[in-house]
Structures are given as C-alpha cells and as structure tokens.
Model the fold of this input.
Amino acid sequence: MTIIHVENIRKSFGKNKAVDDVSFDVEKGRIFGLLGPNGAGKTTTIRMINNILGPDEGSITINGQIASPLTQKMIGYMPEERGLYKKMKVGEQLLYLTQLKGMKTKAAKEAIHYWLDRFDASDWTKKEVGELSKGMSQKIQFIATIAHDPDIYIFDEPFSGLDPINSDMLKDIIIELKNNGKTILFSTHRMEQVEQMCDDICLFNKGKAVLQGKLREVKASFGKNTINLEFDGDGSFLDKLEGVRLNNRSTNFAEIRVLNGQNMQDILKLAMEHAEIHKFERIEPSLNEIFISTVGEDNLKAQRLEEAQ
Amino acid sequence: MDFSKILLVLKREYLTRAKSKSFILSTILTPLVLIGFGAFMVWIMTSETETDKSVGVYDQTGVLVENLIALDSVRYSNVSDLPIDTVKAMVLREDLDAYLLLEEKHIETNENAELIYGGSGGLAFSSSVRGDIRDVIQEERLSRANVSDEVKELFARRPGLDSRKLTEEGEAEDDKAGFMSGVGFVLGLLIFIGLFGYGAVLMRSVIEEKTNRIVEVITSSLKPIELLIGKVAGVCLLGFTQFTVWAVMYIGISIAAVPVAGVLMQDQISEMADTQDIEQVAAEAGFDPASLEVLSIDPMIFVYFFLFFVLGFFMYASIFAAVGSAVDSEQDTQQFMPILMVPLMGAYILNTRIMVDPDSTLAVVASLFPLTSPINMITRIATTDVPLWQIGASLALLIASFFGVMWVSAKIYRVGILMYGKKASFGDFAKWIKQS
Done:
C-alpha cells in the first residue's frame, strides 16, 4: 500500500531548479532511502513532503490526503538542521513539541515518560537542554521526533553528527519502528547505510530522480559484473587494467567494476602474475558503484569540486 | 489558522520569558532607575549652579554702582576709583572674575553696557548680570525722567498669565496642560521604548530559534504564520505584564506619596505662615495643595494607550521578526536596522514638538501616519482634545498597514527561517516575497 505518493513535483528557487519533475511512491511498512550528493534536491523534497514548503507543480499525498497541516501530524520529522531550545527544560520542551503535533497533554506526558525511561533519561526532565552533553541532547531529539507516535518517520541525514553509540541506537530504533509496521523515509549521501537498512531506494541527482526501485532489484539489474579482489603483494598491476573502474581500493583489497563486458578471467590472470590472490569473487555492484555509473563519473567529479569550493 | 497551536506558541514564548531572571529583574529595576534618574534631574535643575563671582564695577556715572551693590553686595564691588589698567590686571590675576564698564551713554542711549571677564564666563553668569543691569538702569532712567512713584510702581509689576481650560460643561477647570503634555510625552516615550525594546526581544527570539536549529522541527508541526503570530502575541503580552506591574507600582507609590508630600508641605507652609499669607507662600513655593488632584489621569487615555501599543507593536514586531529571520546572528541585523530606526526615532523626535504644539498640522499628520501614529497620537490624545474622527482614522490606517506589513513580513519570515549561512540583502527580501 502506498503511504507517500509523490507525483511530478517541481520546486525552483529563482533560477535554480532544486527539484525537477520527481515522482516516487513509498510503501507502507518499509524503509525508503533517498540518496544523492549534497544539493541534489533531497532536503527540498523532504520539506515538501512535510508541508514546510509547497511544490510549484505536482502533488504530494500522505495516506491519500494532500500534504497539509493535517498530514503533518502523521509524520515525525528529524531535519538535517536540528536542535532544541537550549534554555528550556527537557520535560517542558518535549511536551511543547509533542503538543504542537496535536497530542493531548495527558497522552503526550505518558509517551514522553515512556521514551525517557527507555533511554534511561528520566532524570533529565528538569534539566535545561544547554546543560546536557551532545549525545544526551541527541537522544532528546529522537524522542521529540517519535513521541507523538506517527505512522511515518522522516529523517534527513540522520547519521550526520551522531556519535557511534547514538548512531547504532538510531539504527535499532529504525528497525524497531519498521517491525511495528511503521514507514521510514530517510535521506543520506552515505551509501553503505542504505545497503544495510533500506528496502527501497530513490537516487537523486541535480534535482531529478535518476533511479528508483527495490534495492535488491536495482542491484540485480546491474548484473554480477563486479570483482571483489583480496590479494597480498604489489598492487600496482591494478593501474594497468583497462576498461575497469576501481572502487574502494586499499593496499590489499580492491573492488573492480568491469566495463565493456571484458573477460574477467584475463583480470584474474594478470592479478596472479603480480600478487598472491586470497579471494576473487564476482558480486553485484555496490550502491556507490551503481550511483557512479548512473550519474556518470565526470558529472560527479565536477559536482564534488563544486561542493568543495 | 490553527488557534490552539498559536496559543501553544504564545504560552511558551510568554512563560519561558516571564519566568526568566532577567525579566523579573528588569521589571523591578527599571522604575527604580527611572525614579533615580528623575530625582537626579530634579536635583540638577534646582541645585544652585551659580557660583559666587566677583564683579568690579567701573562706573563713570557715579549713580549705578551703589544700586548694584545694594542689589548684590557679594558680587559687586566698586572699583571706579582705580585706574582702568589696574582693574584689568586684577581680572587677569583673578582677583576679580570680571569688570563692568558703565558710562553715561548707557543710561541716555540704548547702547549696551560691557562686561569683560577673565578666565570663565558662562551663560548663566552673564545673563544674571544683564538682569541686574537692566533693573538699575531702568530705575535710574525713571528717576531722571522724574516720573511719579505710581508710574515706578507700574513698571515694577510684572503681568502674569493663568490659564484655564473650558470644558463641555461650561466650567472652567484647573488647567493641567503642563502636566498633561508631560504625561503625553511620557506615554509616547513608553510606546517608543516598548516598540523598540520588545521588538528587539522578539527579534532575538527569532534569531535564537534559527541558531538553535529548532525552527525546522517546529515548522514541520505548524505554519510559519502561526508561529509568527504566536510569538508576537507572546512578547506583546510580556510587555503588558511589565507595563501593568509598573502602573501598579506607580499608583501604589503615588497613593503612598500624596499624604507624605502633604505633610511635608504643611510643615513648610505653617513655618512661614507666621509672617505671610499662606496662599502666597504656597504659590511662591510652586505648590498648590489642589495640584495633587491634577495628577489624576483620565482612564480613557490608558485604553488608547493599550490600543495604540498593541497595534503598533504587531506592526513593528512583524518587521523585527522578518529582520531576525533573515540573519544568522544579532550582529548581522545592523544593515536592516534603518528600516526600523528611521520611523521610530523620527516619531520620537517629532514627539518633542507635538507635546508643546499638539494641534499643528505636523502633529496631525504625524498622528495619522501609521508608522509614527502609535507614538505621536497617544501624546496628542493626552495633551489636547483630538477629534474622534482623527483617532478613528489613525486607528483604521494603523490596522490596514498592520495587515499589509504583517503579510509582507510573513513572506520574508517563512523563507528566511529556513536559510542558513547566507547573508541576506534587501534584494533577497524582494526575491523571497515574490517566491512565497
């Protein structure tokens, strides 16, 4: 069942087309990943789903309803730019944010109490957020996002800035929410997180959705044209290879994407001449590789350069 | 528009601020500082600033010097017998502060006498000498003209002016124009301070939500306009709390002060009563027992104060909020401040004129123009009888422009709050207004 339906949305800021004719569906009870480099239009899309911005064209429906203040209540949103009132007490603050989502005072208090308990944070209610450590306030931020028990959870770059403990905790929460039948949409530019967690993906580049579908199907459609190579010895032979792309290269490991249908046995032979081979495996390409081949390497380099500037 | 959400925002905005130490302190301390400042001003105005200066009188007429010495024997001394160079030397040595050159022609013609001073003069000093000279020369002229004592008496009298105001009932009541124009100015000043002070509080609050990065969390729960209205109303209510506390303090102090002042005055009056007529003494002391009644203010003025403050605040506060939304820190607000400073400071400066001349065309225009009317109209209302149509027109214009300004500000606000790390300009404002 489709719970978020995005249809032909466009959004421009001045001359900049931030989102350019994007459509996708998010199925209920699944984890949906929005991927793409910075500035690809992920955050703008997410803001439109949250009814913070309105699309110039196209439509967004949540649970069959056009995005509106009503649908905002169905969503728990943790933006990339996130924070809390520093001078407000944890308890009051959570109550305020949960009430804003339309929850009644009593139910809100119970929910907050439950989550504070779960995170061993009950002692913090009377503390001001400014007094908390960064890790502690991140936990409060999670509670603020999920306490009103919505059906849909949207996290924009959730793992950026999280310490490893909270990062793991968030992963657990996301899995738990999914097991409870909730729907999760999150955006990231880090592909390995998507590989670990997502059921479905949508790839963004320059405001367009360039690739989408079930993660497994997307990967399978690229075929087993990638080699996982582990070796011991001089790795310089890798530079002699033609018609391949090297990802994830290190001193004794390389992920080799074979282009132009080149014979993999030739690569193995060459490798054996120069180094001791521990592992030679044909695999599906990594998401990172898929992304690069979809968007185009040159394209991506230019973009990274822009970002760096 | 969801009013339950606006109410939530209002409540948070109001409570977190009203409970803060800085608010409680400023509520209590501000009147104390003002009273202290007022007392200081009174002290400066009444304290004897004139120091005793010695003036040598070099009198060639031979008649004026005695009259001057009779007038003030401490200040004036006769140096007519000394050579003029010696007198000059004495001034240079600072044995004398100045010398006065008097000749026949000063009595006979309109030529001015001369005061020559050494180290320091001072306006107060020369004007007081001028007063003395006028008195003695006029007296001399009168006696030379051989006029009768009656005429001299006529010249000695200074005609005065008592003013009373005619009211609808036809009774002339005690005039309190002086007091009321003071009240008018203070009320205008309070609105000026309120618009500026609480406007800045709101602006800081908007910036705080941006720098704390909480604003996006909040806008995923409500519309920016609801957030804006809730915040403006919350800070407005905060202002009212403060004004109410101050009003209660003022009333409390005046209730306590009247009997005390009465007792003090009574003592003073009865002391002098032995020698002179009480009323005269009281009048000389600048105190009329009835004047305490005058201190009462028509309650309608407070109703108007309320109206003009609220409407003016909502209009200006939305501009403050728009400015706050466009920046990442308080320092960055500098470039936008003129749009707020110019009308507000202008209204304040106009107020000093309006308070003394409340019926002039300038005053009428300023009290109708919506950017200045919140400050200038209340001063006029307190100072003079403003025709109802003018008050009505002023309010109508203010309400209309409040909606207009709010509409534009809200557009800037809803884009601005989601912009990070970019310094906005007036050009960006125009873009944002078009965009949303």
Q: What stands out?
A: The interface with chain B takes residues 13-14, 47, 50-53, 69, 72-73, 75, 77-79, 81-88, 96-97, 99-102, 144-145 of chain A (CB under 8 Å). The longest helix of chain A spans residues 164-179. Residues 66 and 171 of chain A are 30 Å apart (CA to CA).
